[in-house]
Amino acid sequence: VLQPAPYFPGRIDALMNMVNSEHHVSAMMVTGRTHRMTEMVARLAPGATVAQARAEVAGISSKVHADFPEAYDAASGYRVTLTPFQEVLGQKAKLTLWLLMGAAAFVLIIACANVANLTLMRGVRREHELVVRAALGAGTGRLRRLLLAENLVLALLGGVLGLLLAFGGVGLLIAFAERYSPRASEIRVDSVVLGFTLALVILVAVLLSFIPRLAWERALGAALAAGGKRATGGVKRQRLQQTLVVAQIAVSVMLLMGAGLLTRTMQRLAMVDTGMNTENVLTMEVPRDFAGEGDAAAIAEYERMQSQLSALPGVKQVAFGSTVPLRTAGFMLEIKAEGRPVAPGEPMPRSEYRTASPDYFRTAGIPVLRGKEFSSTDRAGTARVVLLNKTLADRLFPDHDPIGQRVAWTGEVLKFIPVSGDWRTVVGVVGNTRDGGLDAEPLPVMFMPFAQEAFPSGGLVIRSQGDAAAIAPAATRIVRGLAPQQPIERVLTLDQIRDESVGPRRLNAQLVASFGVLALIVAAIGIAAVLAFSVSARTNEIGIRMSLGADETRVQRMVLSEGGVLVALGLALGVIGALSLSRLMQGLLFGVAPHDPVTLAGVVILMGVVGMGACWIPALRAARIDPGTALRSQ
What we know:
Layout: H1 28-31, H2 50-67, H3 85-90, H4 93-125, H5 127-135, H6 140-177, H7 191-210, H8 220-226, H9 235-270, E1 281-285, H10 296-310, E2 315-321, E3 332-337, E4 350-356, H11 360-364, E5 368-371, E6 385-389, H12 390-396, E7 406-410, E8 424-430, E9 445-449, E10 459-464, H13 472-482, E11 489-493, H14 494-501, H15 503-537, H16 539-547, H17 552-581, H18 597-623, H19 627-633
Parallel strand pairs: 4-9, 6-8
Antiparallel strand pairs: 1-10, 1-11, 2-10, 3-4, 3-7, 5-8, 6-9, 7-8
């Protein structure tokens, strides 16, 4: 009994011995020296390196080639490739991981810019206190240490809160991501994460301690004369605050652009036609051994399942085949068409090998474009017939009607598997289905009658009158009763299989979108805070303006125009950055260009509305300033 394993390459309920199990077609797959489809998994010895293993494997491979020259033609360039398993798992995930790291870094930048602005405002408020401390003898180092201690306490409190949220969020992330990543179970808040967080907290605290321009850097007399009433902190400090706000907006635009592109990708995938009617269809995989072509016992077992499942209330049709729809068979062979040789230099056509029972296509909702489906008379000993999907029919017979034409499997691999290379007559053409994924082109597929083949697999397709998931428990009990020794795998509706196929993309989109929403909120808070501080610093000025006749609308317009300039600058820089960085996401997109104008326009409008909305709060506050109170405070 094995320990629980991650979903890789899928949820596995049972393992069988490859050497002596007929389930794996033939022991010749292991012992045959001209079989080219086997992959091996090995573990490095303690202290060994990948380079050493590669050298050792290369030496063994060279000796085997020399000992068996008839099996390894030197001109064919046969070789053994040794690749670290981590690289195999991470090849497709690398771009995604970089994207998520970038999104997290962008949120960190926005948060740091926001905190830096708050620190600047706090420094201005405390300027008189620091001047007095300096005048009483506090040196530069002492004041720096004071600020560092205060900022370190704040940063540590923020870091602790973040870690508490991380501990709670990791469980949710693992539960969602383990369906799409074999290494999701490795996600944890370990010593490395804790150390990185602590280092980041200290770094932020140190930087924040040196951002404010300390009071003693000006002439003490001038600072004391100001009496703490110069709350603006000078032109340079205002410009720094405004620069930080612009940076927050720009980075938010770039992050929202990435989230928007991934969201648009999900919308495009949702619009992809699977080529079949997936509504109210339940599937389950029930693999078993076959004794050979036309194994009467195996076929009878599936037919008993079909009969009893058809008697369930709410079930309309039941069929079976080697593989359920919307999943790859994982078994492709070379194929040839009679009288249509392949041109010199062109590779042989390849097709997926699948079997289907009568009414399989009607049950699965796959249209028959030409000809007919299989019938109950297509069994072992009768004429060999096949159906092609449209992709394969167009490839083999681009300018002829495929009905009545003959095709055959070919290739050296037929020596090692129980698949006949006899000619087979095409009796029908069916529509393409997205078995390789919604984001992939339809695969070429050839279907053969289930009762004529010996493929060691079986998938049941059940069409119901209502919710297909509701009949899953009853259907599973029936199959378990008829085949208690057979594993029952992946009991899912076709809609669930479709959703599962885009699960990794959905996870990416949701994570980046959550980062984008967080960035939007933090940026809005930053804009509102800076403008509110500006209004507070300009209370006297606004009071004078209002006493001279400026009405509330004019004051609001003044504040909104100040914020609008910052928003416009941030949007402009953000658009430039987004257009530059979005090209790096090409490999994660489907049906949408990296420079998609709809996404870009939506991001600009959203950020503009949120930004100006954040400006509106300080503008209302400015309009409510009482001129008399403002002048008396002066």
